[in-house]
Amino acid sequence: MAGIDRQTGRLLDGWDHVEQSVAVIMTTAFGTRMLRRWFGSAVPYLLGRNLTTQTVVQFFTGLIAALEVKELDTGLPREPRFKITKIVPSNASEFRVGALHLEITGIYMPRGHLGDFTPLDTRTIVLRQGKTGAFETVG
Question: Would you say which domain of life the source belongs to (predicted)?
Fold first, then answer.
């Protein structure tokens, strides 16, 4: 599966495309895409809240739910090439300044979008808040 990098316009394929896809799903609020009202996650609705343990758990729940929901037309998860196995806040001491960096570890299945869920390996996506407050991938 190939796509286009949102920042540079270059072609993306493989793992780079999965990283971007996860970031797009996480940062798109439900109801903001005209023909795909259920695309996205609840995570944008959590931005601006106090960074407590409860809010972090809600972030985790929102991310997992968004990636695991099956599309009605295909029956595949929203991002079928990546299955989350663990989410860890990368540095809990940053909570005091309102920063949240997440390390999302999961199984990478490069042909998952074709229905072949054979795992290739385990990979980690690091999401951090950028200068604008929006999440971006690091890597």
Answer: Bacteria
Count of structural domains, the chain = 1
**In the prediction, which pLDDT does 111 show?**
92
Q: What mean pLDDT, rounded, does the chain reach?
A: 81
Q: Each residue of 113-125: pLDDT tens digit?
A: 888 999 999 999 8
CATH number, domain of 101, equals 3.10.450.40
Question: Taking the model in full, what pTM does it have?
Answer: 0.80
Question: In three state form, how does the secondary structure of the chain look?
Answer: CEEECCCCCCEEEHHHHHHHHHHHHHHCECCCCCCCCCCCECHHHHCCCCCCHHHHHHHHHHHHHHHHCECCCCCCECCCCEEEEEEEECCHHHHHHCCCCEEEEEEECCCHHHCCCCCCEEEEEEEEECCCCCEEEEC
Contact predicate 40/63, CB 8 Å: no
Look at phi and psi of residue 115 and say left if phi exceeds 0, alpha if psi is from -120 to 50, else beta.
left
Mean pLDDT of 53-63: 85
